Amino acid sequence: MSLTDRIEPALSSTPLPEPTPAEVSIIARRRSRTALRRAVRERWGWVVDSQQWWLGGVLLAVTVLGCLLVRYPHQVPVSVLIVCAVVAGVRLQVKMLVAVFAYILVWLVVFYVLLHGEKDALPLASLAVLVVMGILLVSAVARARLGLQGASSTTLLLDLRDRLRAHGQLPRLPVGWSGEAELRSAHGEGFSGDFVVTNLSADGRLLEVTVVDVSGKGSDAGSRALQLQGAFSGMQGSLPPEEFLPAANGYLLRQHWDEGFATAIHISLDLVTGEAAVTSAGHPPAVRFDASAGLWHVMGNRPGPLLGVISDVSFTSANITLERGDAVLLYTDGVIEGRTTRLLDGIDRLAGIAEAKVPTGLNGLAERLCATARGGQGDDRAVVVLWRN
Asked: At the top level of CATH, which class does the domain 171-388 belong to?
């Protein structure tokens, strides 16, 4: 039976879960933006959505400003043309944008021919105009590759990022369980190579959490992480827990990326009995807190191979039982790695920070670990903490 044959019956027979608070917030914001766009389009859509109107308006503005530059060369700065260039870069397609920029260049040439170089600072101002137009043209070409134009491309990416991040938020757990998930990207960028995927079964008994670290950092790995997060969100919960990582490995292999490997750690937790299975694919080991001994210790299960490197792999799970007061900690290498420190030293440091939080409770531990990570602000970081009250 193929993977599709196993997924489709599960999707059709499984009732849709209640949306999480994060998803409700995203839906509310999207509805408000949609209502505003609909109202504007009904009244002013013929102007707002028309490329011809924007092209005509920008050309008219360039003409007026060009005439003012020629008539009052010492009062009107050349940099005013940047305003027209920015408006054109935001609203127009590439072909129209090139035409507008060529028209601006014509006015600059006319201006300097008539002025005969009377102002020494003018070449610097014109250079600023040329630089801005070059940046806007490169950005417009990049948007054109997506088939988008203007601000709609940014809105689409933000909506996609917010929706996928909502899948990484921990669902509302039943009484007796608590958890936290924290994700921070390198240098505060909007997209991260680390991500978290969570799923709570329809009966509220089985919780699955996967922490993934895609090769690369920040925006370099962001596009691959977005694609993988969407795919992994669809697979997790639709497949038996033991089949998730093999299916994820097969998905990466089919992408044929030059730099397409990833590490992952997956936990499936029975919220009734506390039994859990932790499976690693080349990922740093999970750390468990044993309340009876009062100690954090590294789980010693042998990690499986990296995702997206070899086919026909198998993964071995470590089975544990979380009793009252026990906890388990999942993280990415950005939390423990440093330029001059060993991996084991970073794990010991992580366990020490976690141990210091035990007397006051584990609330805020995920945020603290991300904030004090060995990799600092220059690496992606993700932490998930689950504990039984």
From this structure: alpha beta
